[in-house]
């Protein structure tokens, strides 16, 4: 058997001809160049509202409670004016399916714009890179700073960057945990060293995760962890809008002298300045074609347009375009797949809105009591015993009146009206009786209905059976 090479050894062929290679190759640090342009501004306008929404939502109060609070111990989710209970889990599943379809539709239409413009991973990485630029300077300065020995300047610049990173991570972490417990209590508890161990653990965990993720992992998260990057290529077609390099126009690439007739020498518009690579947050060269790592952020478009402006060439050597537009000059927007996804999405969103709008915040479940005989004969009546489970899923306390309907004149006995607190599930035993002379079948359906006294529109029904002799 061939001996394994030590960790210091480079991959090499052994005597037996077996070649050992490392399955993990550490990525080189990426020093991105700062660039301004249309897409960079657009990213700010898409990322900023999302970030502000994330930061402010837990602080917003509606009807004297947080606008968004996932109260796991109480097993209820407050979202704006609604409160969801475990019984409403299907809404969450539905929402996930809608989100997946939305992603499919958007990807078929405009590629990975979610990744480049709105994904939290991208937005937070952008913030961390901004801190890097502010404290350590642009690309060349950062490369020089990293290469130089530790001195006062290097220490204060690196410390300032770390400080900003930690502040951003802490704010992110407190906000995130603030979606699961009242944010005011959390923040005051944290800064007065009065926080319970469990929330403190989560705050520190998310602080570390944000710091590591946006500070160090960055594009590696997209490359190796995010599943979306893996399957997005399957959804692309020739008319999907994506960042592309026009090789027909750009090649033969290479440097040229000012005023030189480069076309006469068979050269294209690409001057091979590598700016498009230097600005790329995932460190790829878009001139090599569509790559799984590309997040469609458009920074290389801005960089190349800046170069084209300087050279006096038309913009758009790298642009958001489609494969068909480059080869034939036309793009087909309405394709069967896109229409199919769009229709499905429209139907699902409409149904979801309808079901939320018509959602009744009370649940009723009637079960025949298995602990007693099938029926009881009491004087001239037949009785069945039931256990009702009444779930108050509304905000506030409700008292429910009970009715019963069926083919015979049923009468409810022993129903005690008890107020149900918000979120409470009442278990109520009731008896239903009917005169024996009026019951003509051994088994018949009966329908229980409850109605809130405070709001008669809050009503629920449940059907079960009544058994006779
Ligand atoms: S290739 Fe261009 S669009 Fe793709 S990630 Fe790099 S800079 Fe962004
Ligand atoms: S920025 Fe434009 S001109 Fe410069 S290397 Fe990239 S594609 Fe060529």
Largest sheet: 5 strands, antiparallel
| Principal-axis shape | elongated
Number of helices: 15
Please give the alpha-carbon distance between the first and last residues. 84 Å
Order of helices and strands: HEEEEEHHHHHHHHHEHHHEHHEEEEEEEE
User: Runs with pLDDT <50, length 5+?
Assistant: 1-13
Summary tags:
alpha+beta; Immunoglobulin-like; 15 helices; 15 strands; binds iron/sulfur cluster
What does this structure look like?
Among the domains are: 38-91 and 108-220, no CATH class; 362-467, Immunoglobulins (Immunoglobulin-like). The chain is 41% helix and 18% strand. It is elongated, with a radius of gyration of 33 Å. It has helices at 38-56, 89-110, 113-118, 120-136, 139-147, 152-177, 183-191, 197-217, 219-225, 227-235, 247-250, 275-278, 299-311, 323-328, 336-357; strands spanning 61-62, 65-66, 68-71, 76-79, 82-84, 242-245, 318-321, 362-368, 376-378, 381-392, 400-406, 411-413, 425-435, 443-452, 459-467. The N and C termini lie far apart (84 Å). Strands 8, 9, 10, 12 and 13 form a 5-stranded antiparallel sheet that branches. A 3-stranded antiparallel sheet has the order 3-4-5, with no helix packed on it. With 469 residues, it is an alpha+beta fold. Bound molecules: iron/sulfur cluster (2 copies). One iron/sulfur cluster binds at residues 243, 279-282, 284, 286, 294-300. Residues 245, 250, 253, 270-276, 287, 303-304, 307, 317-318 line the site of one iron/sulfur cluster.
